[in-house]
Amino acid sequence: MRLFHDSPKNYVFFGFFIYAVALGALFPRLADLQTQMDISKAALGLALVGLPVGVQITLLFADRLVRQIPLRLLMGLGIPVIGLSQCLAGLATSPVPFFICLMLGGSAVAVIEVAVNLEADRVEAKTGTRIMNRSHAYWSFGFFTASMVGAAFAQFAISPFVNFVIVTVLATLASNLVFSKYTPAERRHKGTPEKASLVVLPSYAVSMLVLFSLSAMLVEGSSIDWSIIFMRDEFDTLPLVEGLALVCAALSQAVVRYFADPLVERFGPRSVATASVVGMGIGVILVSCSMSPAMALVGFLFMGGGSAVIFPLAMSAAAGRDDRPSEENVAALAQFAFATFLIAPPLLGIISEHYGLRVAFAVALPFILLSFLKRTVMAKTSPSEADKTGT
Q: What does the alpha-carbon distance between residue 361 and residue 351 come to, in Å, rounded to a whole number?
């Protein structure tokens, strides 16, 4: 069965979308899961560390898995593993089994994260057209879809377990149907590692990309994990309004990513990065100082839009470098930057338990300043910029 008019980029877009739908089902229901387990925000934050633990362990060898296993198998098996982990987590009544279930899902997240980003880079190289930001836009559209579905289920008091089962079944069927006959693009660089290494350490250039993207991963992760609980605790809103916080962040992120590639081509990575960092800072300040639900929702819009393109820009720059195999550079960036996306927000739960969620969100401001100072790394490492200058 041929889908999407035989266009490789549309397969990539769908891969990002369905991956986000599967992963994003969890986060709109965190408030309900916290109530179900009857635990504090600090305990919930520690339980959520199970996801990054699974991610980080698997990222140690994810580059070799992606090199050897076809994308259709990675998607066909990875999506149901993510869903199964959430279904089991939906039955948890205490933090320990919840932690273990999320570890299982994290292992699949790591492999799919590397695989879809590499495929996006390969299709970019094959077609000569930027699609990385738009690919991540479809990730945001998928997360937006999962957020809307989760908010609706919560409003009608349908259990997280039922929510997760429905999403898992539909996402598994869709991913297996779409990718059953997909032929991946050729690898951009043919080099292979000289020897296997347990930890994929970043080069100096990739390390700078890690520092540049830390704030975006923190802002995006904290809004995903804590936006709904923030609305509930600070303003005592209805479940549907609580869900709007996550919807606003995901929707603004999706829209910015969707239209970002032409802007990057016209104004360059550095200018787009500067505007993005400023937008993130405005959003964090609005949320931390919000006096009403409306002000907080506007803040989450800026947080989502501001964080939208920073990680895709960094990922594209890492994948396009030819100093090492693309799998290694992508895995190295994902291993260190993605850790912030997943580890920091749970730790913010501990901060919020003692100082409140407003302070927890404001913790991102120093990292936003760091990104502002490191934004010039995009001009130095972006393959397209290098081509323009002839370097």
A: 10
What letter does residue 199 receive in the DSSP assignment?
A: S
For every residue of 73-115, DSSP letters joined together read HHHHHHHHHHHHHHHHHTT-SSHHHHHHHHHHHHHHHHHHHHH
On whether the CB atoms of residues 106 and 55 are closer than 8 A, the answer is yes
Question: What is the DSSP secondary-structure string of 300-343?
Answer: HHHHHHHTTTHHHHHHHHHHH--SS-HHHHHHHHHHHHHHHHHH
**What pTM did the predictor assign?**
0.80
Distances (CA, A) of 248 to 46, 102, 285, 304: 26, 25, 16, 7
Closest CA to 116 of 62, 166, 177, 190: 62
287 vs 368: CA distance, rounded Å: 15
Determine the longest span between alpha carbons in the chain, in angstroms.
60
Please count the other Cβ atoms lying within 10 Å of the Cβ belonging to residue 19: 26
Over residues 214-263, the pLDDT tens digits come to 899 889 888 988 999 999 999 988 888 888 898 899 899 999 989 988 88
